């Protein structure tokens, strides 16, 4: 637990100090005073859990949580902490994307037990992600995935799926290359995320791995390093195009 990091987001100084004292018993933490500050720090630092107050100036906790989820700024659990006490409110917050919900005033023992549970959940999620990522063979095209797709479709149909993917990827790459300003990082991340997801689904593993690395760098504001990798991504898509034209597995 000591290696874990928690981000505390609360505009009330007294509440924030209370949370800091409690969290310090388990692990390290950082604190900010509103949703905007939370988004800023999450762009450069990784956390295992976010404790999010709901009513805050500049940006409230619900809006901040939705921004984090929508833009995939962080995948760690987010717990809402609010003065709302109604169970209906609790289910509403959970339905909207929070992982847990506690009401103020908090009970220290319940608070610590909930934080422990969510940190363990974060651990499990990280392990699953690592297993998924380490299981990706470094090949141009994963024949195992192609055969799964062909189980209920003709080879020609699936080949056309890959050709459509290449056509869409060409458009995405054109848009990615045209992004010249660091101020458009969010737009770049969106395009790379689409390319990563589509290539991963179709087993275009080399494209997937480079798109994944590019997205990671962009999310961490490493503009120059991202730009250096973009030509590699374009090159891998060209290789995949040649490979699909010659591949006999669809016959």
Number of strands: 5
CATH domain class of the largest domain: Alpha Beta
Low-confidence stretches: none
Cα end-to-end separation:
54 Å
Gross morphology is elongated
Q: What is the number of helices? A: 10
CATH architecture of the largest domain: 3-Layer(aba) Sandwich
The string of secondary-structure elements, in order, is EHEHEHEHEHHHHHH
- The helix-and-strand class reads alpha/beta
Radius of gyration: 22 Å
CATH topology of the largest domain: Rossmann fold
Integer tally of domains:
2
Lateral strand order in the biggest sheet: 2-1-3-4-5
Full CATH superfamily name of the largest domain: Response regulator
Average pLDDT works out at 87
Write a structural description.
Helix 7 packs antiparallel against helix 8. The chain is built from ten helices and five strands. It has two domains: 128 residues, 3-Layer(aba) Sandwich (Rossmann fold), CATH 3.40.50; 104 residues, Four Helix Bundle (Hemerythrin (Met), subunit A). The chain has a five-stranded parallel β-sheet with strand order 2-1-3-4-5, sandwiched between helices. It is elongated. Strand 1, helix 1 and strand 2 form a beta-alpha-beta unit. With 251 residues, the chain is an alpha/beta fold. The model has no long low-confidence stretch (mean pLDDT 87). The relative contact order is 0.09.
């Amino acid at each position: 637990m000591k290696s874990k990091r928690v981000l505390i987001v609360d505009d009330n100084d007294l509440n924030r100090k209370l949370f800091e004292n409690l969290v310090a018993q388990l692990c390290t933490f950082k604190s900010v005073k509103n949703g905007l500050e939370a988004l800023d720090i999450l762009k450069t630092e990784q956390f295992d859990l976010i404790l999010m107050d709901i009513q805050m100036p500049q940006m409230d906790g619900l809006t901040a949580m939705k921004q984090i989820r929508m833009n995939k700024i962080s995948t760690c659990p987010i717990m809402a902490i609010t003065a709302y006490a109604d169970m209906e409110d609790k289910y509403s917050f959970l339905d909207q994307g929070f992982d847990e919900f506690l009401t103020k005033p908090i009970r220290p023992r319940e608070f610590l037990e909930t934080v422990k549970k969510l940190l363990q959940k974060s651990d499990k999620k990280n392990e699953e992600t690592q297993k998924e990522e380490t299981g990706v063979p470094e090949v141009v095209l994963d024949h195992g995935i192609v055969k799964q797709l062909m189980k209920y479709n003709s080879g020609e149909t699936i080949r056309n799926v890959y050709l459509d993917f290449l056509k869409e990827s060409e458009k995405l790459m054109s848009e990615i290359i045209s992004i010249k300003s660091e101020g458009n990082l969010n737009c770049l991340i969106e395009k790379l995320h689409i390319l990563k997801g589509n290539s991963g689904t179709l087993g275009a593993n080399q494209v997937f791995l480079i798109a994944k690395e590019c997205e990671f760098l962009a999310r961490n504001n490493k503009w120059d390093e991202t730009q250096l990798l973009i030509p590699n991504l374009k090159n891998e898509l060209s290789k995949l195009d040649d490979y699909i034209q010659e591949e006999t597995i669809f016959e």
